[in-house]
UniProtKB/TrEMBL annotation:
PANTHER family: FERRIC REDUCTION OXIDASE 6-RELATED (PTHR11972:SF69), NADPH OXIDASE (PTHR11972). It is found in: Membrane. GO terms for biological process: monoatomic ion transport. Its main location: membrane. This is ferric-chelate reductase (NADH). It is an enzyme of class 1 (oxidoreductase). CDD domains: NOX_Duox_like_FAD_NADP. Its cofactor is FAD. PROSITE patterns: FAD_FR. GO terms for cellular component: plasma membrane. It catalyses: 2 a Fe(II)-siderophore + NAD(+) + H(+) = 2 a Fe(III)-siderophore + NADH. It comes from Dillenia turbinata.
Length: 746
């Protein structure tokens, strides 16, 4: 018997050796491929930054006289006037977009170990998380944002200075009467302001391309990039307003104001088109100012749809060769806009809707399993029973780990639209409670754009988190808490271990929001693995209400979907990297093809010389390339989604999610009690952030702390001031605080 065992052991030893060898070889191949991918990604990133720096340098040297005499003539000799301006100023942004697609595709192929290691490294750097300005017209501004502001201000000052010198030199060459000199100076200055505004316009549309590969590459979410669009919008419209105003004064001095305003030249600038474009821009600008936007959101929303009028008449005003300077940014925006339009055509199932005691509405929406999002994502929601035109942004309050086939949003009742939504849910609940059939008008259907957000879950980059929220600003942090609890329960290695949530609310009835997270059911033994503390400040109540301890149940309304598992469409820029990348690449190629064919076989052959018409044709090429080439990719993408969705079985998961949601609603009392055990509630007080930060410094020691704020501007300013103060006065054994803001109001 012993001999047979020895023989069997000898036979197994070579097999074990082969197995170990194969495993070792596979590991070596995996490490080698991972290294190759990392090197290629580094090369792509370096190339993108080189192209960007060269592009910015070209913009800076454009006002200089030598730019036309050297680079301008060389490019013009190869590509012509329109082609040279397009290659110099729109080409770089399109090339960067294509390279960003390649970088995102390679990021998809990164190994899980690489992603986990990256998750604990704050890749934003101190430039993005150190608040330089904390109060003023710009709000809280990080060091990186401050550098960007300085660059734009420097460019404007530089360009105005150079152009002013050129204007005076040009006028001094002619012996003109004083009045004529003044009027000529006005005309030239107006022209220069228009040129400077042109380069600001080249950047204006990039931050609002919600799912663009550019924002995904630099990992800046749309909700954060919106403020850059606001800043650029103010600067652009100031420059364009000065441009138009100086020309109006010049024409009035010449005594031909009406004739010039109504003039529409074939060769040269079409003045009337410019007037229409400027008036449209002014209308959008005025209605977007914060006081008007806050009080009359619908007016702001509807007037901002006039951007298409602004762009079309701007193209006809300046002609093709000037419009080619800004075409790149506009093309990227319309790429995203068309994709959003296609995604929003679908009606999405609402699995359930509930009204919390504080008046907040919770919606659980159906989604396909392959539509990814992060805990800090946004969606744009339209309820057609309330309005066919209004879209409202909301933070996702659920974690991707809550379930593959649904996501949740919390909606605070603040205005007419949200009040109507809550009323519709309550009416539907009453009909269900009375066992009445749902009336057609009482059914709720939704359309969704998104989700949009960070490319990576950046709350996992820190081992220690300080989450500061005001009111409904707790919503994204509930998603973060959900996500971390799931990861702790699953045994994920790199997750935050210390979490302090500071929450300021007006009334104690808002405490019911915490009951939407059932900590004990997600991670029963969380206290052994996670140090979680919640400090709640009820600012407008001096003491607990008499009825505290009585649990107010939420009103819940379950909706039976009309179509089985009708989830959100995956046609979104933040969706599949392969399909969204193909959409960008093929549309860009189509754009270049259409422009080239138009120039060779139509404009040159027929001898078309009208500036306004050529500008309109150039813009038509943008739309045609997106509709034809991009539309083909979207059709194939949609067919692929349909095939994938038929292979999935979402019904069981959807029902399980609905059952889980039912249980969370009926057990809110228990859930709230569970959370309150780690929740200290203080009445009649506001958070003392100096004391809070000092306590963290003593308890946590020398660590990296991610500070995330979601609340009104005053709250963000208070936290940012304390972050900056702690960083400037930091001792060696104290934490490093990284400030991150999450938009409270888009």
């Amino acid at each position: 018997g012993k001999g047979r065992q020895d023989e069997g052991r000898r036979e197994q030893e070579p097999l074990l050796g082969v197995g170990v060898g194969v495993k070792s070889k596979e590991t070596s191949i995996g490490l080698c491929s991972s290294l190759v991918v990392s090197v290629i990604k580094w090369i792509l990133k370096a190339l993108i930054w080189v192209i960007f720096v060269v592009w910015v340098c070209l913009i800076f040297i454009f006002p200089a006289p030598f730019s036309d005499q050297t680079l301008g003539k060389w490019l013009e000799a190869i590509f012509g006037i329109t082609g040279s301006l397009f290659v110099a100023f729109s080409g770089p942004i399109l090339i960067i977009a294509v390279l960003s697609v390649a970088h995102l595709l390679l990021s998809d192929s990164a190994s899980p170990q690489h992603v986990r290691k990256k998750a604990i490294e704050p890749s934003f750097g101190r430039l993005w998380t150190f608040p330089v300005l904390v109060d003023g017209p710009f709000g809280v501004v990080s060091a990186a944002e401050f550098i960007g502001i300085v660059l734009f201000v420097a460019f404007v000052i530089w360009a105005v200075t150079v152009y002013t010198i050129q204007n005076f030199n040009l006028i001094s060459q002619f012996q003109l009467p004083t009045l004529l000199q003044s009027s000529s100076l006005l005309e030239l200055t107006g022209l220069r302001f228009g040129t400077i505004g042109l380069f600001c316009l080249a950047f204006l549309f990039l931050p609002v391309a919600r799912g663009s590969v550019l924002l995904r590459f630099i990992d800046i979410p749309f909700e954060h990039a919106t403020r850059y669009h606001v800043w650029l919008g103010h600067l652009t419209m100031i420059l364009f307003t000065l441009h138009g105003l100086l020309y109006l004064i010049f024409w009035a001095m010449q005594g031909r104001l009406v004739q010039e305003v109504l003039e529409w030249k074939d060769i040269g600038i079409a003045n009337l088109a410019g007037v229409i474009s400027l008036l449209t821009g002014l209308f959008m600008w005025v209605t977007s100012l914060h006081p008007l936007r806050k009080q009359y959101f619908e007016l702001f929303f509807y007037t901002h749809q006039l951007y298409i009028v602004f762009v079309v008449f701007f193209a006809m005003h300046v002609g093709d060769f000037i419009f080619s300077i800004v075409a790149g940014g506009i093309f990227i925006f319309f790429l995203d806009r068309f994709l959003r339009f296609c995604q929003s055509r679908r009606t999405v199932d609402i699995i359930s809707a509930s009204c919390l005691p504080c008046g907040t509405v919770e919606l659980v929406l159906s989604k396909p399993a392959n539509l990814r999002y992060n805990a800090l994502s946004f969606i744009f929601l339209q309820v057609r029973e309330l309005s066919w035109l209004q879209w409202h942004p909301f933070s996702v309050s659920s974690s991707p780990l809550d379930g593959k086939f649904h996501l949740s949003v919390l909606i605070k009742v603040l205005g007419k639209w949200t009040e109507q939504l809550r009323g519709s849910i309550l009416n539907s609940f009453e009909e269900q409670n009375q066992e009445m059939p749902l009336l057609p008008h009482s059914k709720i259907t939704a359309s969704v754009e998104g989700p949009y957000g960070h490319e990576s879950p950046y709350h996992l980059m820190y081992e220690n988190l300080l989450l500061v929220a005001g009111g409904i600003g707790i919503s994204p942090f509930l998603a973060i808490l959900n996500d971390i609890l799931h990861r702790v329960n699953d045994g994920t290695l790199y997750v935050p271990r210390n979490i302090l949530i500071v929450w300021a609310i007006k009334r104690s009835d808002e405490l019911s929001l915490l009951a939407t997270v059932d900590i004990e059911s997600i991670c029963p033994s969380f206290s052994d693995k996670l140090n979680l503390e919640i400090q709640t400040y009820v600012t407008r109540e001096s003491e607990p209400p008499v009825e505290e301890g009585k649990v107010q149940k939420a009103v819940k309304y379950s909706i039976l979907p009309v179509s089985k598992g009708r989830g959100m469409s995956v046609l979104v820029g933040t969706g599949s990297n392969i399909w969204s990348g193909a959409y960008v690449v093929f549309s860009t190629i189509g754009f270049v093809i259409f422009v080239s064919l138009l120039e060779i076989y139509y404009i040159n052959i027929l001898g078309i010389t009208s500036w306004w018409y050529k500008g309109l044709l150039f813009f038509a090429c943008i739309l045609a390339s997106i509709f034809v080439f991009g539309g083909l990719v979207i059709v194939l993408w949609n067919l692929w989604e349909t095939r994938i969705s038929t292979m999935e079985e979402p019904e069981e998961d959807r029902k399980a999610a609905e059952l889980q949601h039912n249980e969370s609603i009926t057990s809110k009392g228990t859930s709230q009690e569970n959370i309150v055990t780690s929740n200290s509630i203080q009445y009649g007080r506001r958070p003392d952030f100096t004391a809070i930060f000092e306590t963290i410094a003593r308890r946590w020691g020398h660590v990296e702390v991610g500070v995330m704020v979601c609340g009104p501007p005053s709250l963000q300013t208070s936290v940012a001031k304390e972050c900056r103060s702690q960083s400037l006065q930091r001792r060696r054994n104290h934490p490093v605080f990284h400030f991150n803001s999450h938009s409270y109001d888009l």
